Amino acid sequence: MTSASPAATKAAPYPAGLLANRTVVVGKLLPFAVFAAVLVPLALTRWSGSTAWPDALTVDLSGPLGRTSDWIIDNRDHHPLFLYFFGHVSNAVVLSVRAVYLLLLALGWAGVTAGAALIAWRVAGGRLAVTAAVAFAVCGGLGMWVPTMQTLALMVVAVTASVVLGALLGLAAGLSDRLYRMTRPLLDTMQVLPAFAYLLPVVLIFGIGVPAAVLATVVYAAPPMARLTALGLREADGGVMEAVSSLGATAKQRLLTARLPLARPRLLLGLNQTIMMALSMAVIASVIGAAGLGDRVYQALASVDVGAALAAGLPIVLLAVVLDRTTAAAGAGTSDTNGGDLRGGWRGWAVVVLGIGAVAVAGRLAGRLDWPAGGTVPIAEPVNRVVDWMTDHLYSGVPVVGGTADWAGHFTTWVLDPLRGGLQALPWWVLLLAVAALALLIGTWRTALTAVLALAAIGVLGVWKPSLDTLSQVLAAVAVTLVIGFAAGIAAARSARVEALLRPVLDVFQTLPQFVYLIPVVALFGVGRAPAVAAAVVYALPAVVRITTQGLRQVDPAALESARSLGATGVQQLRQVQLPLAGPALRLALNQGVVLVLAVVIIGGLVGGGALGYDVVYGLAQGDLATGLVAGAAIVCLGLMLDRVTQPAERVRRKGA
Amino acid sequence: MRTYRTLTAALVSAGALLAVTGCGAADMTKQASPYANAGGAKTVTLSVQSWVGAQANVAVAAYLLEHELGYRVDTVQVDEVPAWDALSQGRVDAILEDWGHPDQEQRYVKDKKTIAPGGDLGVTGHIGWYVPTYFAEKHPDITDWRNLNKYAGQMRTPESGGKGQLLDGSPSYVTNDKALVANLDLDYQVVFSGSEAAQITQIKQFAKERKPFLTYWYTPQWLFEKVPMTEVKLPAYKEGCDADPEKVACAYPHTPLQKYLNADFAKGGGRAAELLKNFHWTTEEQNEVAMMIADQKLSPEKAAEKWVKAHGATWKKWLGE
User: Fold this and answer.
1) Which residue in A219, A411, A643, B314 has a CA-CA distance of 20 to 30 Å to A72?
2) How far apart are CA A529 and CA A584, in angstroms?
3) Rg of chain A taking only CA atoms, in angstroms
4) Contacts of residue B75 in chain A, CB cutoff 8 Å?
5) Which regions form coiled coils (chain B) (predicted)?
6) C-alpha–C-alpha distance, residues B66 and B45, integer Å
């Protein structure tokens, strides 16, 4: 489903390898080396000694954070800030979610299914209408009707809020250069943050439940809307704008009649992205009481029931598919051009509204509002049987290759342990210098500064060691992801059949909530860091494979043709033409891989990954703000640092689905 | 000009928001779930904790509330400490199995009076260290903590870094294990599995291969039926020996598990509140349901239905009949 937009993977005019331009490298690194040569001895004389971050440079936040948490709990029922601001926000969220939920219940299953089909028909045509109807019927058939409606109600509110907020931000940034410069780093940062890290602050203020879940989702899902709105407005064709101005249009008229309509595809892509990101939060938000489908997944995992988790996860995938295809079709603008007499214009919408009303009333008259009790298909049991078989036969003692538990053990001992040991044994200033040098080589002095400051902040927060533990897991997982992802991407780029085979697999992997993987990986790899890495690899692979495939495919055919005419073999073509030309795409794949891996490695705290992820879970579970927030902040810094040292040519879609 | 107009628009919309949400103060301490009482049905929202025993309580309570009293029941999975918070705010109506949180009890039950005690669940909980019985039978001396170091080599895993592995569970559980390992001078490393699901999966895998392992575990728990485990004796528990979390060097206490209700719900919750207060069953009964859910993979509703059909005498009393 997800694919990098073509703009991102446009091949550079000439091979843009890392060391292609020697003078640039020397020019950047030489001043840096001089700078370091002065600074390091200075730092060493002040804070020498252990390799870990110096104690003198840490700030202990546990006292103030503990007091903050107590203050909030004690003042929540009478302080004006809560009574007149947060209280109203919370009430507004509860009321709107409730309103949507009641509407969906009043429509009944027949009304909602018909509604989904009709809207899909109006926006995208007949084929998608069938898909939508089938998808909703399957949600009911899996016995998930009520949770699906709860999730849908929550999504409608969260997406609406994200779109409004994002559009306002984007409008401001699109019209004013100053605001654009100001909001860009903010949005950049918001998109790099793993969602898991900011659940705790929201919970602290709003408590467990729907308001907290909606707000966390909005923080996560609003940035793409804002970015794409700003982008769309800024891209408006200069010639058209000139023409409109010359006709004497006011600023407002120019915006409404020219800029916004021109930006329509971007706006709809923003909506699409926002919906996908909001859906991917559905399960993560269940940790803070979002109810609905996410909660079913979470509860099923608690009783080690992969089948039931899948039964609740599939409706999320189906919702994602329907919403993605519908909004994508709207963005492509196919709706108004064809479709004959009934579908076009207002008449189409009238048909939709009348149709929904008729079906809903019919359902109500027939007394069939709830999904029929007998009409469910249990898929949990067969799925569990498959999982049991896998764990019985693959866990250990497989002849020759050894069982998955042995692999996990070897991976932990031979890869993860040395990596973690090595990182933790490196003196702190060496790490800072290495990060600075890497970021300088790939980006600008500005990105290097951000990266170094982010890493230093981790030290200041006093979580140097666990952060390096997390970092070692991320590096290992990224390495595995890239090896498999590039191989699969190359295979798919060279053979249409492989790509067709991979596509549905990648679709499912990408939209299935990350939590669903957690139990199978424990069953296969035992408890520890290895399963966390495995889950991260599975989650990050689709994006890497997709971007790689697309990057290779878009390599200029003329360049390939000339290579072929010179008698280059397939391997030579790949190594000397395609890969270098696809350089920017591969770097984007690396960046995406890093960010996605980090998000899941943290959730790996739930299966023994330890380090920062465990601290966040611990903070949430024990209401321990000091541990949870500090770990969350460290994750944010780690994410920023990793993003900056892998800064791609251009950033686009990220965070999966 | 334009700024004025924007400002007016902003004020008007803020005012509209206030009007919609009811003017003036909004009490954050009283907020139900948006899904509660929908479609004319009376609903009860129960918090479920991640372990299966807690799911069993909730499944049976929910079944009776739905089928005997005609309520609609919503369940939300929340960890223990946040569940207290949610209970005080009215986002959930009851916790059916609490393992003892003195701080929270002081804050919400005694000081704020937003939570009311709901009485004993009838089940006594106990946390301890366990080894598989097949291993204890071969090496009977392992059941004393003084001999644990002798077996540390056999308990080693890739995660435990050269020491023996003491497998711990979810971060939400009460544990002194890190302090215990240090204070009792044990050659073990506490490995946190991060969730009970992960821990159970790992224990089952160990048991399938009949490998030795040492784990934090608790009773009542259905897993004992599948993987028999024997407790390792730690220095005896005395009142107050776990007061300082850094210096703990004794076993865990036996805790009669408690129920708690939201204070308003306890007063005005009608027959639902009455049923939840009267809910009282034995360890064996809880295990029977837990086993059906976790091992036979029945849905909680099906498991509860089966149990309710077979044990009329027990639950009829809860309805006050």
Assistant:
1) A219
2) 31
3) 26
4) 295, 299
5) none
6) 12
Please determine, for residue A423, whether its predicted confidence score (pLDDT) is greater than 70.
yes
Give dist(CA B217, CA B197) in Å, integer. 13
CA distances from A277 to A101, A191, A309, A656 (A): 21, 10, 20, 8
- Which among B91, B158, B196 has CB closest to A209? B91
Say which of A101, A304, A608 has its CB closest to residue B192: A608
Are residues A623 and B34, on separate chains, in Cβ contact within 8 Å?
no
State how far the Cα of A485 lies from the Cα of A551, in Å rounded to an integer: 13
| Beta-carbon separation of B82 and A606 below 8 A | no
Q: pLDDT digit string (tens) for A274-298?
A: 888 888 887 888 888 777 888 888 8
In this complex, how many residue pairs, one in chain A and one in chain B, have their CB atoms less than 8 Å apart? Answer: 222
Contact A310, A145 (CB under 8 A): no
Contacts of B34 in chain A (CB under 8 A): 93-95, 97-98, 101, 153, 210
Please give the pLDDT value at position A558.
78
Nearest to B28 among A90, A98, A613 (CB): A90
Peptide bond into B220 cis (omega under 30): yes
User: What are A467-500's pLDDT values in tens digits?
Assistant: 999 999 999 999 999 999 989 988 888 888 888 8
Cα distance from N-terminal residue to C-terminal residue, chain A: 7
Helix A210-235 / helix A177-192 crossing angle, nearest 10 deg: 130
* Residue A172 confidence (pLDDT): 87
The pair of structure tokens assigned to A489 is 């991407």
DSSP letter for A54, please: P
Query: If residue B98 lies in a helix (H) or strand (E), which one and from where to where?
Result: strand B94-98
Q: Which whole number is the average pLDDT over B2-24?
A: 54
Tell whether pTM > 0.90.
no
Rounded average pLDDT over A171-184? 83
User: What ipTM did this prediction achieve?
Assistant: 0.78
> Residue B123 has which token pair?
């089940």
Q: First-to-last CA distance in chain B?
A: 72
Neighbours of A414 (CB within 10 A): 11
pLDDT (0 to 100) of residue A398 = 67
Domains of chain A: 398-657 (1.10.3720.10)
